[in-house]
Design a protein that fits this description.
By secondary structure, this protein is an alpha/beta fold. It has one domain: Spore Coat Polysaccharide Biosynthesis Protein SpsA, Chain A. It has helices at about 35-45, 60-65, 80-95, 135-140, 150-160, 180-185; strands at about 15-20, 30, 35, 50, 70-75, 95-105, 110, 115-120, 125-135, 165. α1 crosses α3. The radius of gyration is 17 Å and the shape is globular. The protein starts with 15 loop residues before the first strand and ends with a helix.
Length: about 190
């Protein structure tokens, strides 16, 4: 997996974006570098040239806009704007759902009948990060608003649409608890 970056200052294509915070408890409002995670995620969308919309907007209005949709998880708050912009460009170029991922580095074991078995080869395993970019054609085909569980959404979309996995930079690391904040803060200190 490779990164293809472009300068978000270049006039990019119009796109809508949502910062997902629903179902994530209070963690999106924890602070990193003195700012709420959700605010950092929203700023990254803006810096990528994406127009942020409220998650409560009517789905028919989003579909009717005829624009791609960038879903950005507030728990991946430091995802670089240039990476978001590159994912958007790739979604448009390939008319594909583009999903930021990280390779799995943990050991994964099979369990059968309550017994721990063989180790699973991690080579093809990934975890979904952020963003997930839906090209306009996919947005138009979706009768219902996408859910906020990106793993579930990607699995559903993969059944009927072309999905491209793009390795996310380390700064796009997911925060799963307050204990992760110092690590991400260290990765993104300037």
């Amino acid at each position: 997996m490779t990164h293809t970056f472009f300068d978000p200052a270049d006039e990019g294509p119009p796109a809508l974006g949502m910062v997902l915070d629903e179902g994530r408890g209070s963690l999106p409002y924890a602070l990193i570098h003195g700012e709420a995670l959700v605010a950092c995620a929203a700023w990254a969308l803006g810096e990528a040239g994406v127009t942020a919309i409220d998650a409560g907007i009517q789905w028919d209005a989003v579909r009717g806009a005829g624009e791609p949709l960038v879903l950005h998880d507030s728990l991946c708050p430091m995802t670089p704007a240039d990476f978001i912009a590159a994912c958007l460009r790739r979604a448009l170029d390939e008319d594909a759902v583009v999903v930021a991922v990280h390779p799995v580095t943990d050991t994964v074991k099979l369990v059968a009948d309550g017994l721990v078995g063989d180790t699973v080869d991690r080579e093809g395993l990934v975890t979904v990060a952020s963003p997930v970019v839906l090209p306009a054609s996919v947005v138009a085909a979706m009768v219902d608003k996408p859910g906020t569980d990106l793993v579930e959404l990607v699995a559903e979309l993969a059944r009927s649409h072309h999905v491209v996995l793009v390795e996310a930079p380390a700064a796009a690391r997911r925060v799963s608890s307050p204990d992760d904040l110092p690590v991400l803060e260290g990765l993104t200190s300037g």
